[in-house]
Amino acid sequence: MPRRLAAFGMAMAFSLPAGAAPLYFSGEIAGVGDPNPFFENGIYSVFYLQNKGRHPWRMSQTGDLSAWTSPVEAVPVGEPGTSDYWTGSGSVIADPDGGYRLYYTGHDPEGRPKEVTMEARASELAGPWTKVSETTFAGPPAYDEWDFRDPFVFWNDEAGTWWMLLTTRHEGRAAIGLYTSPDLGAWTAAEPIYAENSPLNLEVPDLFREGGDWFLLYSDQRGESRQVRYLTATTSAGPYAYGPYDALDGRGFYAGKSAGTGDQRLLFGWVAHKHLRKDAMDFVWGGDLVTHALRRNGDGALAVSLPDGLAAQFDVEATALSEDILEIGAPTTPTRIRAEVAVQPGTRFGFALTAANSGRVSTLEIDTAGGEAAFLYNGDPSGAPRVAFPPNPEGRYTLDLVVDPELGLGVLYIDDFRALSFRYYRIGAAELSLFADDGFARLSGAVTTRSTDRTQKDSNG
């Protein structure tokens, strides 16, 4: 720890049954890759890349985030030498002629072009899906033959045509490319809707309109800013520009794609696993599916918070929190800690997580002087997930921490505006406490868990 922690106060630790069902989707033991959600009639059908083999597409459905259907295969990978020897991210739409269309990336490491856009069709979301090889196309001459992936297709009412956004490169720059089609037949290349100088790419784009403005989401492939970010424009054609606090979460959360409308819009992404599943190692590709509620704030900015479907599951109050009761205990079951706090502006506060086996302290630190939150495993700032937030001039904050010990991860929401997702495999054996370097001027809140009837003998697949 770079600085001392304040006294934790009166102990009020709790203990509830171990072996609880995970809070988040647990249908894949190895985890998931890029999710591609589709919303229809109150149901979220989440298509994703299976985090094994050459990433075939799979799908699971949920209505309220508390129960998921058994995953089914949607699009298998191709045979050696085919354009989709590996499959990559994309999107699903309702076909205006009936049924559904799935657009995906075909990736052949030995091919030229290396990446192409491909299509499959089905009469039902659960399949079976049939590949339509005659609609395959590549990027040249308008776009790149190597980076040409993540097709996001939607009907653009404003433009009166179908749009397809892609992760690609244009004249040497990282770009979100654009193709248009009046009828989902032939696709015509247009100028990119956004491009910037970058050695890496703007992945898994997502575009939607809310409250009269357009929001363009992408996942930044660059290591120093590997976050889900967004830009805004008043028309779908742009120009798009970053606003303040353009990152929705830290580098632990990636490949975020949204589905739904208005208050029902959810953002699905994965919280990355770590190499060898060891907390001290760095993040790798793929992880566990985590969901944020995504909405437009009154000031026009996008905000993320705990979805109602997850919040409703925490129906058992374990203990209350106050200035004198700061210890929470070990979260042996999925746990939510929501607190309203007041601190001296410019101070540092947050949660301490003390490992039971070693006594080492990791922290969820909220630096109100710098306007940044970070998760520091064993106090190490290198490679730490971080997210910026607007400091409150009066030092008042709402914290909403959700912990899933079965999956070994957590998410901290700050003022129901920004999220900080983090990986901590042994979090269920860590003692949680609140701290503030200068103490809390005010603190109220509660620790809640789920009913014991949600426990299960075997979890995660």
Structure characterization notes:
- By secondary structure, the chain is mainly beta.
- It folds into 2 domains: 32-310, Tachylectin-2, Chain A (5 Propeller), CATH 2.115.10; 315-454, Exo-inulinase, domain 1 (Jelly Rolls, Sandwich).
- It has one helix at 308-311, and strands spanning 32-40, 43-50, 57-62, 72-75, 86-94, 100-107, 115-122, 130-131, 148-156, 161-170, 173-181, 188-196, 202-210, 213-220, 228-233, 253-259, 266-274, 283-296, 302-305, 316-322, 327-329, 335-342, 348-355, 361-367, 372-376, 386-388, 396-404, 409-414, 418-423, 430-436, 442-449.
- The strands form 7 sheets. A 6-stranded antiparallel sheet has the order 20-31-22-27-28-29, with no helix packed on it. A 6-stranded antiparallel sheet has the order 21-30-23-24-25-26, with no helix packed on it.
- It is globular, with a radius of gyration of 22 Å.
- It starts with 31 loop residues before the first strand and ends in a 12-residue tail after the last strand.
- Mean pLDDT is 93; it is low at 1-18 and 456-461.
Jot down its keywords.
2 domains, 461 residues, 1 helix, Tachylectin-2, Chain A, six-stranded antiparallel beta sheet, disordered C terminus, mainly beta, Jelly Rolls
Fold topology:
Layout: E1 32-40, E2 43-50, E3 57-62, E4 72-75, E5 86-94, E6 100-107, E7 115-122, E8 130-131, E9 148-156, E10 161-170, E11 173-181, E12 188-196, E13 202-210, E14 213-220, E15 228-233, E16 253-259, E17 266-274, E18 283-296, E19 302-305, H1 308-311, E20 316-322, E21 327-329, E22 335-342, E23 348-355, E24 361-367, E25 372-376, E26 386-388, E27 396-404, E28 409-414, E29 418-423, E30 430-436, E31 442-449
